[in-house]
Amino acid sequence: AALAAVGDPPSALAAPADPAPQALLKAPVDMRSASLAVIAVLASLYALHWAAAVVVPLLLGLMASYALTPVVQRMVQVGLPRALAAALLMIGVLGGAAGTAFTLSDDAASLVEALPEAAQKLRRALARQRTQAASDTIEKVQKAATELERAAAEGARGTALPSRGVTKVQLEQAAFNVRDYLWPGTLGLVTAIGQLIVVLFITFYLLASGDTFRRKMVRIAGPTFAQKKLTLQALDEIDLQIQRYLMLQVFTSALVGIATWLAFWWIGVEWAAVW
C-alpha cells in the first residue's frame, strides 16, 4: 500500500474504466451456404411437382378433415363413437353431393343437348362479324391500292420496273379431330376420379383417428410441461386459423353461387341453377 501510495499516480488507484465499445463487423455472406439453400429449395419444388399425384390428394384430405372436424367432435360429444361419426358424416356429404347432382341432372342434360344449337348460333354470329370485318377490310385495301396507283402514275418517269414473279402461299389449318381431345380428356377424368377417392379415404382416416397426431406432436415437443403446453397452444391456433379460413371460403363460394343463380334467373337465362 505504501509503494502504491508513493509510486503510483492517483489514476492507478481508481477503478478500471469500461473498455471502449467495439464496432460491430458484419460477417460476409457464405456463398456456399446460400448456394446450398437455393439448391435445396429448387430440389424441394421439383420433388413436390414430381410427387403432385400423392401430395395434392394428401393436402386436400388434410384440409377437408380440418373443415369437418368440428362436426365430428359435436357428434362425439353426443355419444357416438368417433369412427362411426366420421363414417356418417362422410356418407352425409357424399349423399348431399349426389342428391344435388341428381336434382340438377335434368337441367344439365338439357344444357348438354342444347350445346350443338348454341354452338351453331355462336358460329353464325362469328361468321357474320368476320364477313362484315372482311368487307370493311377489303374496301380499305382497295382504297389504299387506288391511292398507291395514283401516286405511282404521278411519279412515273416513263421507266418501268421489271416485274418479279411472286409465289402465292396459302396456309390451311388442320381439321378439328375430336379424338385428339377425347382421349386426354378421358384420362384426365379418370385421374380426377381416382384422386377424389383417395381424398375421401384420407379425410375419413384423419377424422376417425381424432387427436392422435396432436398427441404425438405434444410427446415429441419435450418432456417438460411448459413445452407440451406451448406445442398444444400452437396446434390449437393452427386448427382455429385453418377452420376459419375454410369456413370463410365455403361461405363466400355459396354466396357467389346463390347470387349468380338468382341473377341468371332474374334476367331469364335458361338452366340458371346449373350455371
Structural class: mainly alpha
Terminus-to-terminus distance: 101 Å
In helices, the fraction of residues equals over 70%
What assembly state would you assign to the polypeptide chains in this entry? single chain
**Biggest sheet features:** none
Number of helices: 9
**Global Rg:** 38 Å
**Which of globular, elongated, flat, extended, rod-shaped describes the shape?**
extended
Strand elements, count: 0
Average pLDDT over all residues: 75
Order of helices and strands: HHHHHHHHH
Low-confidence runs of at least 5 consecutive residues = 1-7, 9-15
What portion of the residues fall into strands of 2 or more residues?
A: under 5%
Structure, explained:
- The structure is a single chain.
- This protein is mainly α.
- Helices cover 78% and strands 0% of the residues.
- Helix 4 packs across helix 5, helix 4 crosses helix 7 and helix 8 runs antiparallel to helix 9.
- The protein starts with a helix and ends in an 8-residue tail after the last helix.
